Amino acid sequence: MSCRSLLERRVRPLAVLAALLAPIAPAGAAPQAVLGFGANTWRELAHTKGHPRVVVFSTTDCVHCPRVIDQLAAAMRQSNSRARLAVVVMDGAGQEADLIKDRHYRGAHALYAFDGDAQALRHTVNPDWRGLTPYVALIPAKGTARFHAGSPAAHVLREFLRP
Amino acid sequence: MKYLLAAIAFTWTAALAAHEGHGDTPRVAAKAARPAKPGLAIGAAVSPGGLLWVVGLNPDGRLFVRTSTDLGLTWSDAQLLDSGNDRIAADGENRPKIAFGPHDRVVISYTQPLAKPYTGEIRMLRSDDGGKSFSAPLTIHRDRQLITHRFESLAFDRAGVLHVVWIDKRDQVLAANAAGTASAKSAYAGAAIYRNESRDGGLSFGPDIKLADHSCECCRIAVAPTPEGGLAAMWRHVFEPNVRDHAFAILGGDKAPVRASFDDWKLDACPHHGPGLAASTQGGYHAVWFGEKAGRAAVRYGRLSPVGSPEGEARELPDPRAEHADVVASGRQVAIAWRSYDGTQTRLRAWVSADDGAHFALRELATSSDENDHPRMLATPAGIRVLWRTAREIHVLPISP
Question: Residue B336, Cα to own-chain centre: how many angstroms?
Fold first, then answer.
């Protein structure tokens, strides 16, 4: 529901305030949309300054991915890290409604689906990646991404998430 | 009130700006994902009459077959098949398959993903008139739980018995129930390999039979004829404690599965990258698979004994970006084809041996900038062919003669 329609209906101001402040909710707010992961998305994620980022590449049939996403989200909460968690469901295009409802992705700040040739998009992320999932990228606030097949080792994650 | 609304509006705008500025959803990517396109994955086989058949999904997501009398130089119009309301998996490791049996029997199988994540049923259309008409789809396994039954492979043996083998999670459910835990994964590693047989071309099937506990969950199963007229299968397995190597078994044989690769890849993840298998005329098998050995990820080729154990050292394909290789053998000729993406285009390449795998030579077969499927190898009466579907066409490329 848009800001305008709420105002027009003269909903009580405090309720409006709560709804409007949602965009600055703390880490882990469930994604409200599935965004297209296109040819430039990785560059944007990897080079946008600000927060460190954890990006998990997943597929709808990846049985290991939900556990890894949960572990990463929990580690981020526990460490009070400023890091942001993004999940990219590589074969998720056309299944947006299901992805939004899927509890496995609720710990993410942003949810994407591949929008284009999967081979080419994988190559933009890391030419050496052969499509294994979960594939986890740890992108520091300053510096280059490091990639992990499956969950990163605990000590690597602790170091990355250190406030 | 006016001031309150103005403050709210300012707060909202500032919040959004901060959100974007921190790059949670970079502006360039902030558009909805587009609708899914039907996958390009196809199955192929040569009929007893020498026609090349392919089965796949058309751009509307409808199941079709096409035939070629000249091994891909020209194609018939697509014949659309009635698969009811089934969703059909046709992407990457999951593809429709086609197989020819005796008495004009033709079967087409696919995995139908179900509403719950990670679940599916294996469905089959069958024909008794050489493919002129097909039945409505039927589910081929007896277990009907809303669980994984996926990644099927199928073939007729020399006696005309149809064998289907698939990945199945019924044992994980049982283990979780027995352990009283909601975490099925902690109760049972991986999935299981199940199989069944039909002696009437898919009209009816025998019981679901467990072939192996603890398979990997998301990789295709390779099936190849044995020299004795039976069928052999190779799949990615979860060996103790958590090693994703490969196992081999003769379908319907009396021997337990054996370990066929020793990469020692310890991994809690889905490679989405199953093996390829072909019988050698000299005895044993040719196998290709993807794995990480001593920290080095590669597609490797190896020889297996007649019971599936490795013989000699596995060799890396001469392409560090090789993926989704397939293998076929015809006489002493062995051919392995794979795809390899270089950042601008996909190269279809092959490694070809004229001496049963002792020596190989690299060949460049084709390139494409379009989306494309994994390559499929076929031994036809006219020689070895590679099938490769791109977004524009189905290529059929000769390896021999």
Answer: 16
ipTM: 0.86
| Number of domains within chain B | 1
- Please indicate if any CB of chain B lies within 8 Å of the CB of A91: yes
pLDDT tens, position by position, B48-67: 999 999 999 999 999 999 99
| CB of A58 less than 8 A from some CB of B | no
**Cβ proximity of B138 and B86 under 8 Å:** no
Percent of chain A with pLDDT over 70: 82
Domain of residue B208, residue span: 40-215
Task: List, in order, residues 6 or more apart from B219 with CB less than 8 Å away.
Answer: B93, B151, B235, B236, B270, B271, B272, B273, B274, B275
Closest-CA residue of B relative to A118 is: B371
A109 falls in which pLDDT band (50, 70, 90)? Answer: very high
Torsion of CA A99, A95, B236, B250, to 10 degrees: 130
What is the model's pLDDT at position A29? 67
pLDDT band at A27 (very low <50, low <70, confident <90, very high): very low
Contact indicator for A90, A59 with CB cutoff of 8 Å: yes
Domain topology for A31-161: Glutaredoxin (3.40.30)
Q: Is residue B105 part of a domain?
A: yes
Q: Indicate the domain borders of chain A.
A: 1-26, 31-161
Chain A contacts of B168, Cβ < 8 Å? none
Domain membership flag for residue B372: no
pLDDT score of A116 more than 90:
yes
Q: Which residues in chain B (254-293) have CB-CB distances under 8 A to chain A?
A: 267-273, 290, 292
Residues in chain B predicted with pLDDT less than 50, given as ranges, are: 1-30
Tokens of B299: 């597609």
> Strands of B209-215's sheet, edge to edge?
B149-156, B162-168, B191-198, B209-215
For residue B168, is it within any domain?
Answer: yes
What is residue B78's predicted lDDT score, i.e. its pLDDT?
97
> Using CB atoms, which residue from A40, A84, A132 is nearest to B271?
A132
Interface of A with B in 121-140 (CB under 8 A): 122-123, 127-128, 130-135
Q: Give the domain CATH number at B126.
A: 2.120.10.10
Give a yes or no: residue B299 inside a domain.
no
What pLDDT shows up at residue A50? 83
